[in-house]
Specification:
With 210 residues, this protein is mostly helical. Helices cover 69% and strands 0% of the residues.
């Protein structure tokens, strides 16, 4: 059978390769953040903004400021690895099966993730490396979503997010486990909003200052 597709069309396919690539890049970026913290190094723009290296900053307050920064970077890296892994699973399994809920989960997550970058407007510091990476990854993510949209099976609306795959009794072992996972997710979302709100306004919580 003759294949008349061009190279670019073959690589983009139904959009899933681009979404898989987006997830992979997030995992690699998260791993890089963990590596930087483990090796106790700042990025060049960190040094430029602070006006000192990690070794120089470590001489202040028994190095606790540096450890605090590395702690935040590890948390950021872990979140990137988790999101990237989820993206790759979504693209390879439910989206391959043309499940609309997986596509909408990409939309909701993408709006939250890419949109959160604009939080820097609240605290005044623009991470240039983060900004460049976001600008490069965003078109890849969007094109992947556009291409995969036409392959979805009905119903294609956002209501597909709220149609459960199974409806066991809530008091069954499955139902209790499901409720606990939902509670965990709600707690993480609330925690994310709290961290973002504090980061854009007060910046530090009392434990940070201590």
């Amino acid at each position: 059978m003759r294949d008349d597709r061009g190279l670019l069309q073959a690589l983009i396919g139904d959009g899933r390769p681009l979404l898989l690539f987006s997830g992979l890049i997030l995992v690699l970026a998260g791993g890089f953040a963990l590596f930087l913290s483990a090796s106790k190094h700042f990025l060049p723009h960190d040094v430029h903004y602070l006006g000192m290296t990690a070794e120089e900053l470590c001489r202040i307050a028994d190095c606790r400021i540096v450890y605090f920064m590395f702690h935040d970077r590890v948390a950021f890296g872990g979140a990137l690895i988790a999101i990237g892994s989820l993206y790759m699973w979504l693209a390879e399994f439910p989206l391959r099966q043309r499940k609309a809920w997986a596509w909408w989960l990409f939309i909701v997550s993408g709006i939250s993730g890419f949109g959160s970058f604009l939080a820097y407007l609240g605290y005044g510091y623009l991470d240039t490396w983060h900004g460049v990476a976001t600008l490069l990854l965003f078109p890849c993510f969007v094109i992947g979503l556009i291409r995969s949209r036409s392959f979805l099976e009905p119903p294609r609306g956002i209501t597909s997010l709220f149609i459960p795959g199974a409806s066991p009794p809530w008091l069954s072992p499955f139902g209790v486990g499901r409720a606990l996972l939902l509670a965990t997710a709600a707690g993480m979302i609330a925690g994310g909003f709290t961290v973002m709100a504090f980061g854009m306004t007060r910046v530090f919580v009392p434990q940070d200052l201590t």
